[in-house]
Amino acid sequence: MSAAAQQTTEAEALAAIRFPGYSFETNHVFQTDHATYTRLQPFSAGIQVDRQVVIVQPYNGEMRVMGLLPPVSDLITSLVYTEACIWILQNDSWEAVQMSTQTDRHGHDRTDVFLNEEGDTISVRSWRSYFGDSTVTARVFRPDPITVAEAEYGGDLVDNNDADDPVLNSLRSLVTVTATFEDDTFFLYDTFIRLKDFAAPVQPVAWSLTPVFDAGRGDPAFEDVNTLYHLQQCRNWLVSLGYEELCSFEIDIDTHGADGADNSFFSSGGTPSIQFGEGGVDDAEDADVIIHEYMHALSHSAAPFSNTGIERRAMDEGYADYLAASYSLQWSSYRWQDVFSWDGHNEFWDGRTTDNDKHYPEDNSLNIYAASGIWSGALADILESIGKENTDKLVLEALYGSYDEMTMPEAALWLLDVEDMLFGGLYHEEVFTILDTRGLLPSTGVQEQQLYNISFYNTNAFADGTGPLLIITDPGKQLLQMFDMSGRMVSSFCGEGPELEWMPPLTSGSYLLTVTGRTTGSTMLIVK
Ligand SMILES: [Zn+2]
Question: What's the CA-to-centroid distance between 293 and ligand 1, angstroms?
């Protein structure tokens, strides 16, 4: 058996122990410089469950299981239709329903439609991540004309309905872009970033017989070169950080799409795609919009089809705003925290900023764009504390751990784990303090349901046989179970949290210890 297949089998076995009654199939296996991430699809009674489980196997450290599944008993009490094919959470109960997946003729948009026994649609889920803005005209620059001029929107710096303008054109920078030369013509695409005209309005992608694309901001070709340039720059940066795998997917881009509407969006179908709208300031004139949408694509690449749940989706927007802000800082520190510096913060709409004091849970809401500020704000604070490069790495690695319905406190604890994986605790204090200040860690703030992180101590002494395992968890009842590597339970113990000591008699070998409490659950590899 290959190493990869071995790891997949171990991950499936670990998940089966952690979630009794479920079986698992491996959807994706990702490897970074720091860990292997195995994404599993759970099944109960042969029926798919609308959740994912992620097994993180750091190269130095303990395996962990991420994601939550309902007890199998919750599924059994639900109504099972004859042609059911997926369990979904519907009005607080898990129901087995039919699902049909539709993609548009270009293979871009994927929509899941859920049907009841009678074949009536009961819910629809679109895998589009919108950037809902309300802006107008613009020019395109590095990263945008507002930042280059170090000015506020207004005066000479206005959209003016996408008209060519000597002042705005003077704010363009001379850059080099990688294009494709084919049959005597230069085309605007590379191996990964493919500019196409696949959505209305009809606006063919610019091409040239000479290696020069000198378009004024009023020329549709300007959005084409602007988009390709910023995406290439962003990719180069990710590759330099060691995340080449993450961004090595083909993506189709229509810089004049979205039916001409005033928004842009990423779609995760067979081929990922982005459409930029032209309402207000043309979206593709602002690097913040371009990088924001690309981050949705990166997030999808690391954690496919898991962007569900209000807080999870708010964090996806937060990650996208963070990367847009961080990318701006590459060119200038002027108002770098303003997101959509040119596209927003103007007569069309207010834009957003990572320079905010939003706090969890008070500023969390059903409006994912408003709530996203909690997450993007915390990440920007971390950047100011430990630097752009370190924070970018932290964020890129963290994407792999995202799962359906992930909450912000769960993601905050995961971010601390990622810090430990990448930097060995060097920046733990800084990251902890910032997340804590934002109300994202369990020790602060008043939350209805506290979240606890399970910690294991004294594992070395236990391995030597000189002391018990020490487990710190939530204050309620805890079930401790020890399994051998064949999945057989060899010892169990029920105790009262938050501090538990346990010294089961074991022969030498590797074991999996699972701790299950009311609010927590964790699995750890124990060596005796
Ligand atoms: Zn978005």
Answer: 6
